[in-house]
């Protein structure tokens, strides 16, 4: 999904993206999501949209893990177990 617009910090770092009428954190890492959720101007609808997006990602990871398990593939070999995924997964679970 391509962002419609972005919000940047004073240093020019992209903080949020605007997708289909909702703002989301640029990255789905624990730190980025935590900062987004606790920001003073976050709207309830943005939190709902983010939760649904994270749930969808979690479903993809679970299916990939299930498929990998059936195929006998190591989870780290298909990118399920990495630092960013683990951090995001801890937010979901």
Task: Describe what is shown at a glance.
The protein is α+β, with helices and mostly antiparallel strands and 93 residues long. It contains three helices and three strands, in the order E-E-E-H-H-H. It has helices at residues 30-37, 44-71, 83-92; strands at 5-8, 14-19, 22-25.
Please explain how this structure is put together:
By secondary structure, the protein is an alpha+beta fold. It has one domain. Helices cover 49% and strands 15% of the residues. It has helices at 30-37, 44-71, 83-92; strands at 5-8, 14-19, 22-25. A hairpin with a 5-residue loop joins strand 1 and strand 2 (14-19). Residues 82-93 have low confidence and may be disordered.
Structural class call reads: alpha+beta
In helices, the fraction of residues equals 40-55%
- Sheet with most strands: 3 strands, antiparallel
Radius of gyration: 15 Å
Number of helices: 3
Estimate the mean pLDDT confidence.
75
Strand elements, count:
3
Strand order of the largest sheet: 1-2-3
What are the main properties of this structure?
93 residues, 3-stranded antiparallel beta sheet, 3 helices, elongated
Set out the fold topology.
Layout (H helix, E strand, L loop, with lengths): L4 E4 L5 E6 L2 E4 L4 H8 L6 H28 L11 H10 L1
């Amino acid at each position: 999904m391509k962002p419609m617009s972005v919000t940047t910090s004073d240093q020019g770092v992209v903080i949020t993206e605007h997708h289909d009428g909702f703002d989301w954190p640029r990255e789905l890492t624990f730190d980025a999501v935590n900062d987004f959720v606790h920001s003073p101007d976050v709207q309830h609808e943005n939190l709902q949209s983010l939760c649904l997006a994270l749930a969808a990602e979690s479903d993809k990871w679970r299916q990939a893990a299930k498929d990998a398990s059936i195929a006998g593939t190591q989870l780290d070999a298909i990118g399920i177990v990495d630092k960013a995924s683990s951090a995001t997964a801890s937010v979901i679970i």
